[in-house]
Structures are given as structure tokens and as C-alpha cells.
Design goal:
single chain; 322 residues; alpha/beta; Rossmann fold; 2 domains; 6-stranded parallel beta sheet; 13 helices; elongated
């Protein structure tokens, strides 16, 4: 069986580790090199002439599209699949116009990357599913499916930006917003929401904005360092039923964002964090809830954390990283 030589270009180490894990199912697919910026990707492509290149768009020094254009001239036989967080149709079209054969959104990498590689190696084009809708922002269109998304962030500014967009859109739409976070994060979110002209105080009075402490919330259902399902469903169901009564319309929408599972991960309890994400999935089947979880990327700084990172990703319908 002939091997397929693959170059992976992405500036996030955890994403490169995740790709390695995903490709383990095909031992003939060999990652021969990793690049962390566009210029390095071009250099390594010219030097190694790989069969396949998995290329991020948001690379430093030289973005992925510019790198792809150069690679097409320097290593014309190398097939290119973009693996990106950008889901804009215009971006997808522009990426494929560089001569790339595939485009996969990172949120769907665990389900689509293998199929994309197989298709491209057979000479077919592959464009991943739902490329217009995988953003970690709240959408008020009733046709949008429920989401349980993860936002991986490098600093608090990214965390606060994503949570403010998520909560703010819900409140502006007249829906119910719940945040479960540290005191400092909750305070900063209040300031940012007010700066956007949102009357958060009125929302609190009306019962359409809930701001809960993450440690206090965890204490209501943690038993022996694991989330107890019965206590979890009692606690969260009670909260969501209160939120439903405060919401507008017959079937009010609810968004919930927080850092319960991420805090468990920081405390060195990865199995508890993963189990809690699974419980949130189960509760979302009963209530009309959109969920956003905020994880610090530095929580996965060790080499042995890569499998935990992958498992966390698999528990979410979409994954975003900044």
C-alpha cells in the first residue's frame, strides 16, 4: 500500500495534534511535516513536494490563500484542502479559486476531514457541510438548529467578545440569556452589555437575564468530584423552567453560556468536564437552548492533553478558536 505524504499548516499546536489523531485511522497517511505560518508552508511544500497539504487560512506572515497560490506554482502536484474556521461562502469560493480541491470547516473536522481527504485523493472536490452557519454568535432565526458550541480562547478579550455577542443578540431579540461564570467575567460582561446600550438591569428585573457564579452552580450538583445526573437535572431544569416563564411567546428561546466544564478541566478533572458536557446535551433535548462554553487554550498546553482536547471538541456541535 503506497503512502500519502501530508503537510499540515496551522499555527495552533492543538489543532495540529487533533489532525494527527484524526488521521491515525489511515496508517498509510503520513504527516511528514508541520508548518506554523504561511511562509514556512510554502517553503516546505517546495522542498518536500507532499501529496496533500492541509492548510489553514488564518496563518501568520502569509495567509493560507496567498500560500496556496504560491504552492500551486512551486509544487503543482500537491493537492490542497483548506481547514479553516471561516465559513463565509465568499471565502470558500475564493479559497477554491486558488486551485485547492477541498474546504472543511474546523467545527466539522472530526466528522468530515477523513471523507474530504478520500474524495480529494480520488480527484474529486469536497466542500464541507453547513459552511454558512458555524459561527459562535446567537442567531434569532427560528430555523437555526440548537447548538452546543465551544469557544477556545487565548485571552480574556476573546472570551468576553464572544460571550458578549452571544448574550447581547439574545437580549436584543427579547429572549432569555443565562451566564454561569466567574465573578470577574460576569462583571466585565455586564459592563460590555451596558456599553452596547442593552438595559441589563431591566432584563434582570424581568427575569430574562441570569448571572450565576460558576463555583456556586457547580456545588449544586457535584458529588465526589463528578456531576451527579439527578442533581444536575433538578438544578438546571428548575433554572430553565424559571427562564421559560420569563421569556416571551409560547416557546421562548434560551441561550446559556458559561465555564462550568472548563473550570473542572482547569482543576484537573477532565472526565468530570466531559461528563458535564454530555449532561448539557441531554438537557438541551428537552429545552430550547443554545449553549456556548468558553475554554482557555492554555488548559491544553501539555502534549498528553491532546486527546482531552479532541474529546472536548467531539462533545460540541461546533468549535471556534482564537
Amino acid at each position: 500500500m503506497s503512502s500519502i505524504r501530508i503537510l499540515v499548516a496551522d499555527d495552533y499546536k492543538n489543532w495540529r495534534n487533533l489532525i494527527r489523531l484524526l488521521l491515525q485511522v489511515r496508517p498509510e497517511w503520513q504527516i511528514i511535516c508541520e508548518a506554523t505560518d504561511g511562509s514556512e508552508a510554502v517553503k516546505k511544500a517546495e522542498e518536500l513536494k507532499p501529496d496533500l497539504i492541509l492548510l489553514d487560512i488564518g496563518l501568520p506572515t502569509l495567509n493560507g490563500m496567498e500560500a496556496a497560490q504560491q504552492i500551486r506554482h512551486l509544487s503543482p502536484r500537491s493537492k490542497i484542502i483548506f481547514l479553516s474556521l471561516d465559513s463565509s461562502p465568499d471565502v470558500v469560493q475564493a479559497a477554491l479559486s486558488t486551485g485547492a480541491q477541498g474546504y472543511v470547516h474546523k467545527a466539522h473536522a472530526q466528522n468530515e476531514l477523513i471523507a474530504a481527504i478520500e474524495a480529494v485523493l480520488r480527484g474529486r472536490q469536497f466542500v464541507g457541510s453547513d459552511l454558512e452557519g458555524d459561527k459562535s454568535t446567537y442567531a434569532s432565526d427560528a430555523k437555526v438548529p440548537r447548538r452546543h458550541e465551544a469557544q477556545f480562547y487565548t485571552d480574556d478579550a476573546v472570551f468576553l467578545d464572544s460571550f458578549t455577542r452571544f448574550l447581547g443578540a439574545a437580549l436584543k431579540a427579547g429572549d432569555v440569556a443565562i451566564v454561569v461564570a466567574t465573578e470577574s467575567h460576569r462583571s466585565s460582561l455586564l459592563q460590555r452589555l451596558r456599553a452596547q446600550g442593552i438595559d441589563v438591569d431591566a432584563a434582570i428585573q424581568q427575569g430574562t437575564y441570569f448571572s450565576l457564579d460558576v463555583v456556586d452552580t457547580l456545588s449544586t450538583f457535584m458529588v465526589n468530584e463528578m456531576p451527579d445526573p439527578v442533581r444536575f437535572f433538578e438544578s438546571v431544569s428548575r433554572l430553565l423552567e424559571t427562564a421559560v416563564k420569563a421569556g416571551k411567546g409560547e416557546h421562548p428561546r434560551i441561550v446559556a453560556c458559561g465555564e462550568c466544564a472548563p473550570l473542572l478541566l482547569v482543576e484537573g478533572k477532565p472526565e468530570a468536564a466531559i461528563r458535564l458536557e454530555q449532561l448539557w446535551d441531554e438537557i438541551a433535548k428537552t429545552y430550547d437552548v443554545c449553549i456556548l462554553c468558553g475554554y482557555m487554550l492554555r488548559s491544553f498546553h501539555r502534549e498528553e492533553d491532546s486527546h482531552i482536547f479532541r474529546r472536548i471538541c467531539l462533545e460540541h456541535s461546533a468549535v471556534n478558536s482564537q
